[in-house]
């Protein structure tokens, strides 16, 4: 029997957000309060009571308007790699969600993911770009530019709703859920009303969530990665019973991708997104290879060094990158590499 299958409050709520059923309707009055508070905050920024600060290089914000994760981190990595391929010096800022620290710091190769956040650790590991985390992204951006003054573009991992950091380009990411039931939190998944003004829309799922925007292809890499850097072909795992683990917003999506590659999942372990693995212990009494997501591996390898991480290959369309390049080129004072 697969583990991690119990229904928790979070999963029930996310299911409720897909339709306007009883639970969503009961929560709808609270969504009006949330919307009103969000509107007041926007007015305070527009009136200048709350300040938006800019830095000396273009800032690209990759975020979403729905709660629960929509695939922002793969988009951030794809954007960073694209700009690097053009010879640009790119930096990344993030809040570092779920970390146990509270300061502004650089993510280094030996940083503990518990101190910097699993996603910032993965972004730095996968792209080599300088990454800074701070409670306020403007603080992270300033620190990044001070430490890496040749940086030409900053990409913000998340932050559409965090208006203290000025931005030049906004990329809004959607997965297969689209806008769900179309209601605001907590009756629906929307952090803010949609449609809203943004520069680019990218669908990160297996199919466009709605008409308009750009698409991407997503698939599992052909090789899994060991903690020692060794590559293990996925094909070599076919026919063997495996344990699959995911601590992401939608674990079942990862499990299904593994099954579609012909792998046999004898056991699945679904854990909360950003799980820190402090209290987790590897399954006992089972002699099966353990496979996980690349994001989970940066923390899981401390407890299970034999686990195999299966990277996600996420490739936005050429049209998306062309539109991004055009947006960048149109910015006043922007100098291409």
Strand order of the largest sheet: 3-4-2-5-1-6-7
Tally of strands: 15
Q: What Rg is obtained from the alpha carbons, in whole angstroms?
A: 20 Å
Q: Work out the helix count.
A: 9
Instruction: Report mean pLDDT, rounded to a whole number.
Output: 91
* H/E element sequence: HHEHEEHHEHEEEEEEEHEEHEEH
Strand content: 15-25%
The dominant shape is globular
Description:
Mean pLDDT is 91; it is low at 1-7. It is globular and about 60 Å long. 37% of the residues are buried. The longest helix is centred in the first third of the chain and has 26 residues, at 22-47. The strands form 4 sheets. It has a 7-stranded mixed sheet with strand order 3-4-2-5-1-6-7, with helices on both faces. The chain has helices at residues 9-16, 22-47, 72-85, 113-116, 118-127, 137-147, 251-260, 294-300, 318-329, and strands at 59-63, 90-94, 105-107, 131-133, 153-157, 169-174, 200-203, 216-220, 223-225, 231-233, 241-246, 264-270, 290-293, 308-310, 312-316. It is 30% helix and 20% strand. It is an alpha/beta fold and 337 residues long.
Secondary structure layout plus pairing:
Blueprint: H1 9-16, H2 22-47, E1 59-63, H3 72-85, E2 90-94, E3 105-107, H4 113-116, H5 118-127, E4 131-133, H6 137-147, E5 153-157, E6 169-174, E7 200-203, E8 216-220, E9 223-225, E10 231-233, E11 241-246, H7 251-260, E12 264-270, E13 290-293, H8 294-300, E14 308-310, E15 312-316, H9 318-329
Helix pairs in contact: 3-5, 5-8
